[in-house]
Amino acid sequence: MSEREKCALVTGASSGLGAALTDRLLARGYRVVTVDHRAPPGSPDRQRLQVTCDLADRTALDRTLPVLLDAGPYDVVLLNAGISATGRFEAMPPAVLERVVRVDAEAPMVMAAALLQAESLAPGARLGFVSSLSHFTGYPGAAAYAAAKDALAVYARSIRKAASRRGVTVSTIFPGPLDTAMARRHAPADASAEKRLPPSQAARLVLEGLEKRRRVIVPGRVPLVYAGLGRLFPGAATALMRRLVFEKLDRETW
Amino acid sequence: MTPGERRRILITGGTAGLGLALARHLAPRHDVMVTGRQASAAVSANLPATCRYVEADLAAPVDAAAAVEAALEQAGWDGLDHAVLNAATGHSPAGGLEDAATIRRTLDVNLVSTLLLARMLHPHLSVRKGLLTLVGSVARRGTALFPAYAASKAGLHGFGRALRSEWRGSVGVQVIHPGPMRTGMHEKAGHDPGPLGRFFLDPADAAAMMAHDLATRRSPVTLGWLRYLSGATFWRPRL
Asked: Does A172 touch chain B if contact means CB atoms closer than 8 Å?
């Protein structure tokens, strides 16, 4: 075994699940490269390389990719960055729809393909895509977000073979509601925050799942039940989501 | 809407494959407008004479949605009964991974354009309590042959599922997933299906089954051999 320092890449690391994942990886002694829309607060340190890039901007991403490839090879890659847009679909401006697809689906797909092609993932590495529990339940009130997250989940499944030829395991993570700023921004006003999983706990479950090379990771017991029900009764699950989310939406947020 | 009534139908990607087959199937009894990315002169010989044609390249989603909206206005269509968003592109990469440009183009044509067209068409469809039909693919469950294509089609499925719930009561939303067809799409994507290709559905049969599904408004629907052998090309309600 080589004594090479373990290295991880996390996108969307400035808040929520990405921040919790980064903290855990740092605590385990990983060197972590983070990619964020804006520079996160706190002083940079030796263990952490912070890269700033708006993932909706194709030129910016093309400029950033070589930097990320140079900083590898990685043992863990978590393509976690995502944005949502909630409200009536027909009210969302075209620019918002385009941005949601680019950040939530296109950018992680482009990054994963580039990392695999450049052999920037060390043999035995884990590649994790953060999709959404909405893949199983449907998500009226966030139609573009649901579309992008479904696209990402199926892309992850489709490149599994190409990744395993390079010794890389692909996992797809389907988090339910987390207690993050993103959830507070997009959930209906009366939704209770206590039911949401704390991001630190979700991060622990995600890293455990990666460790065990699970293909599908659904952090938390309640989301797991929802995922199972959505699989068995897709129509009923979407109708439930309509009552729980769409009919309670009191504002449009993007 | 009573069966047999003349309907206004928009079909994207109607110059080849399933879109063309559907336009030919519906043009004798309905008003059909077809979109494609070629110039009008290049496609008119192929299309039914009564079809209107709009040139719109879905690789530029914003411009394409504007072009289609302008064409609807020019035709004096104040409402639409059906919009069939069928246009798509696919690529089969060697080694199982596409480059960035291919991923971006596939998502723009197959997914982003569909989102922008659906949004633009909402008021047109709601005037007549119309139906939005999204053409997916059985590849939506994932395939190593066409990763970005499969992803874009999964996106359409999730989008249609959410939108059907959101628009309940105003505009119908339906997702149809055709199985492999003899449309030339595999060749265009750079994949040779080999002897299996003989078993692919004829696009005309798929279009006939699809016309029934437009009439019933069911979703999601899979168009494959099982339905074909059950007589689905002639067995169900007529549009």
From this structure: no
Q: Which helix (H) or strand (E) holds B36?
A: strand B31-36
As given in the structure block, the two tokens for residue B163 are 């939108």
Name the pTM for this structure.
0.95
- Which whole-number Å values give the CA distances from B227 to A225, B213, B221, in the listed order? 33, 12, 10
Contact A22, A44 (CB under 8 A): no
Structural domains of chain A in order of their starting residue, each with its CATH number: 7-248 (3.40.50.720)
For the segment B202-233, what is each residue's pLDDT rounded down to a tens digit? Answer: 999 999 999 999 999 999 999 988 888 888 77
CA Rg value for chain A: 18
- Residue B181 · residue B225 · CB < 8 Å: no
B186 part of a folded domain: yes
> What are B6-25's pLDDT values in tens digits?
999 999 999 999 999 999 99
| Chain B touched by A140 (CB under 8 Å) | yes
Going across the sheet that includes A48-52, the strands are A48-52, A31-36, A7-11, A74-79, A121-130, A169-173, A216-217
Task: Please report which helix (H) or strand (E) contains residue A223, including its range.
Answer: helix A221-232
Q: Based on the number of CB atoms within 10 Å of its own CB, is A3 exposed (0-12), middle (13-18) or buried (19 or more)? A: exposed
Nearby residues of A124 by Cβ (< 8 Å), 6 or more positions away: A75, A167, A168
Chain B residues 121-160 within an 8 A CB cutoff of chain A: 122-123, 140-144, 146-148, 150-159
Q: DSSP string of B202-234?
A: PHHHHHHHHHHHHHH--SSEEESHHHHHTTTTT
Q: Do A140 and B163 touch (CB under 8 A)?
A: yes
Contacts of A149 in chain B (CB under 8 A): 158
Residue B236 lies in a domain: no
Average model confidence (pLDDT) across chain B = 93
Predicted ipTM of the assembly: 0.94
Of A122, A144, A123, A146, nearest to A133 (Cα)? A146
The count of domains in chain B is 1
Considering the domain boundaries, does residue B1 fall inside one? no
Gap between the Cα atoms of A151 and A140, Å rounded: 16
| A152: alpha, beta or left? (left if phi > 0; alpha if psi -120 to 50) | alpha
